[in-house]
Amino acid sequence: MARQTALTVKGNMATALGAKLCRPHVVPAYPITPSTLFPEKMSEYIADGELKASMIRVESEHSAMSACIGASATGARVCTASASQGIALMHEMLFIAAGMRLPIVMAVGNRALSAPINIWADHQDTMASRDCGWLQFFAERNQEGLDLMIMAFRIAEDERVLLPAMVGIDAFVLTHTMEGVQVPAQEDVDDFLPPYTPKHGVLDPAHPATFGSFGTPEVYQEFKYMQTRALEDSPAVIDQVFDDFERRFGRRYSRITPYRCEDADVVLLTMGSMTGTARAAVDELREQGEKAGLAKLTVFRPFPGDQLKEIAGHVPGLAVVDRNISPGFGGAVFAEAAGTFVNERQRPLIKNFITGLGGREIFKENIKDMYHRTKQAVEAGRVDQPVEWVNLNREVLP
Amino acid sequence: MSSLKITIGAVNTRPGSSREYKTGGWRTMRPQVDVEKCIQCLQCLAYCPDGAISKSENAVQIDLDYCKGCGICAKECPVKAIVMLKEEK
Asked: Do B6 and A219 touch (CB under 8 A)?
C-alpha cells in the first residue's frame, strides 16, 4: 500500500491538497464563502513554488468558468472552486463546459442560495446545476473531499467520459472544520493520474479550430445524445477508478454505499456530511431493535439507479433526506429515487424529508424521526404525505 | 447531410467551413422573378436582408442557397415582378 502522510486540515484545504496533487496547469477562481480557502491555498502553493500553475484572478464567477473553458480547451488541466451565488452566476458557462466536453474539476462548498442571504450548508447550489451535464460527487468527510478531487480528474479526463465534474463538501460542516486526512504521496498520484492528452481537439493558434461550434436543428439533438450517453455510460469508468483507487490507497468508494441494509425495514438515503449523523442514528436504532439501514449517495450525477435498486429494491421503506428543495415538488434526490423505481414491480414506499436548509442542524433525533415516520407509512401500507419538512420551527412563522 | 459527422465537443478543425453551410433550407416561401416585368431598379437587392439578390443580365437573380423567403423583395418591387410561391418538398 502506498505511503501517505497524516495531516489535520479544513475541508477546503483537503480539496485544495487533492487538486494540488493532480498538478493543474491553470486555476481561474473568484473567491466566495465558504470556498475562499481553496483559491487562497492554490495561490499559496503557486507562490511557494510547490505547484507550477497559472492562477487567473478573474472579476466574477462567470469569468472564472469562462477562463476554465478557454484554458481546458488548450489541453490544460484546470480546476476552480465556487459555491452558491457563484455557481448560479456561472450557470450558463457550466452548460458550455459540459457541451464542449472539457474535463474541468470544481471544488464546491455546498451553500444555500439567496434570498434571504445565507452562507451555510445546503445542497441547493449543486442541485440547481443538476441538468448542466456535469458529474457530481458529494463528500461525507474531508478525506472524501481530498480523494474525490483526485478521482474526479481521472474520471472526467477519461476519453470515454470527457465531462466536467463537481466535488461537493458541505459549507462549514466540512469546509471550515479540521479533520485528520491521509494525503497520498505525489509520485503515487502521478502514477494514478496520467497526463491529460485530449484527442478531441486542442485550441492552438497554429491549427485554427472552432470549439463548441454552431449546432443547427439538424445536429443539435445528436450532440446532446452523444453528451448524455457519455454521462450515462460513465459508471463503468467511475467504478473502475474507485476500484483502482482502493487498490492503491486503501480507501473504498462506491456510487452508493450501503450500511446495515441487509434486513432493514427502512433505509435512509443521505448525501454529504449528514451521513455521519445518520450512521450514528442507525446504530442507536439498531441497538433498540429497530431495523434501520443507511445508503450514502456519493455520486449524484450520473444518478446510480442501478445500485439504489440493488440496495433498496427489496426494502419495505425508503426515506430520502434532502438538504435542498425543488419548490412545487419536493427534494431533488427524492425525485431521482422515485423515478428510479417507477417501473419496478418490487419497490419500497418512499418518503421524502426536507431538512438542514441554510445550515439548519440535522440531529440524530431528526434522523430517527424520519425512520419512524417512514416505518409508520410501511405499517399502514401507504404514504399519505410523501414530502415532509423536518425540524421546522413553526413558532417563527407569522 | 448524410456525409456529415459530428465531433466530440462540437470541435471543427476546418476554418472557413461555414461557407459550406446553406441557410436556404429554412425557407417556406420561395421568390420567383418575372424576367419580362423586371425593370432592374434593384430595390429588391437593396432591401434583401440576406444579400441573396444580385443583378443578372436582364433582371435580378436570387440565390436560393441563402434566400430565407422573407418576401421583402416581393413587397418592395414597384412593378410586382416578384411573386412568393409555397416551397414544396
From this structure: yes
Contacts of B3 in chain A (CB under 8 A): none
Which range of residues forms the domain containing residue B83? Answer: 37-89
In a domain, B47, yes or no: yes
Total residues found in chain B within this entry: 89
The answer on pLDDT for B2 being more than 60 is: no
- Are A338 and A136 within 8 A, CB to CB? no
Q: What is the mean pLDDT of residues A106-131?
A: 98
In the numeric block, which cell numbers belong to residue A342? 417507477
In chain A, the domains with their CATH numbers are: 4-249 (3.40.50.970), 256-396 (3.40.50.920)
pLDDT the model gives residue B1: 43
Of A9, A2, A323, which is closest to residue A145 (Cα–Cα)?
A9
Whether residue B2 lies inside any domain: the answer is: no
Residues of B in contact with A208 (CB under 8 A): 15
pLDDT of residue B3: 66
Instruction: Enumerate chain A positions whose Cβ falls within 8 A of a Cβ in B.
Output: 99-102, 162, 200-201, 207-216, 218-219, 222-223, 226
Which residues of B lie closer than 8 Å to A, measured between beta carbons?
Answer: 1, 4, 6-13, 15, 18, 21
Residue A345 CA to residue A4 CA, distance in Å, equals 47
d(CA A195, CA B34): 65
